[in-house]
Backbone:
């Protein structure tokens, strides 16, 4: 099974960064496939213009409806020969709903996904009305474009794809899938700058170690993200989380 991710962006080279690390492995293993479409290739003039000044005035530029919608249709399979759109079209935007790990899990379960990275002040509203299924933000801060947000989404999804991690357990055990923050980690040497590895981790008592880690995870979560514990305690036993 391969997750096909179609990306619409005027800076396709930025996505070369995904060839490193975990997403790079996902691409090599064909668990992930990336297909880039550049709206400039669908521009109507010889200057390959894809943006224009906003109606009503104001600062910045807006991505024009025609080249962008043509690029989305080509990328998503809407105009691909013998194919129909096989997955949602997601627009990365600071106005979108905030992406969480549960959303990442849903994306990872899809066969195909089309991501739209906007630039400038935004995209023509009529493209959102006619083409976009889902509008997603990666957090409450402002980026100059959706490219890094799209890459964050792809990286988060890639590490969940079957066979990518190697150690299948560590994706499940970590922060957020369990709903709380991760416990602290140590490796050799036993003593570093006079700081010793907690004795329990050297004990070989796996039950005691699991218990210590669970307590550490709860402690750091209580200190840094008490909101996560409130969410957790409101989940009834048997609920999927
Ligand atoms: Cl998806 N796009 C932009 N431009 N800024 C953001 C964002 C997305 N998510 C958070 N900030």
Residues:
């Amino acid at each position: 099974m391969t997750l096909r991710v179609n990306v619409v962006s005027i800076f396709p080279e930025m996505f070369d960064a995904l060839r490193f690390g975990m997403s790079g492995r996902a691409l090599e293993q064909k668990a992930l496939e990336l297909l880039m479409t550049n709206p400039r290739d669908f521009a109507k003039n010889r200057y390959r213009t894809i943006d224009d000044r906003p109606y009503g005035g104001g600062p910045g530029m807006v991505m024009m409806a025609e080249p962008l919608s043509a690029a989305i249709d080509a990328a998503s399979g809407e105009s691909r020969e013998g194919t129909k759109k096989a997955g949602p079209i997601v627009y990365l935007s600071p106005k979108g709903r905030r992406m969480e790990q549960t959303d990442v899990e849903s994306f990872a379960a899809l066969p195909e996904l089309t991501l739209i990275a906007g630039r400038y002040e935004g995209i023509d509203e009529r493209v959102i009305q006619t083409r976009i299924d889902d509008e997603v933000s990666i957090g409450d801060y402002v980026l100059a474009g959706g490219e890094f947000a799209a890459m964050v989404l792809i990286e988060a999804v890639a590490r969940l794809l079957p066979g990518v991690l190697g150690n299948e357990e560590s994706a499940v055990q970590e922060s957020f899938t369990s709903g709380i923050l991760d416990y602290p980690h140590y490796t050799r040497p036993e003593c570093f700058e006079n700081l010793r590895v907690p004795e329990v981790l050297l004990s070989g008592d796996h039950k005691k170690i699991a218990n210590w880690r669970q307590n550490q995870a709860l402690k750091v979560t209580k200190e840094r993200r008490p909101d996560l514990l409130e969410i957790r305690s409101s989940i009834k036993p048997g609920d999927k989380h």
About this structure: Helices lie at 21-28, 65-76, 101-108, 125-131, 147-158, 168-173, 206-224, 226-233. The pocket of 6-chloroguanine is lined by residues 92-94, 137-139, 141-143, 145-146, 149 (CB under 6 Å). The radius of gyration is 22 Å.
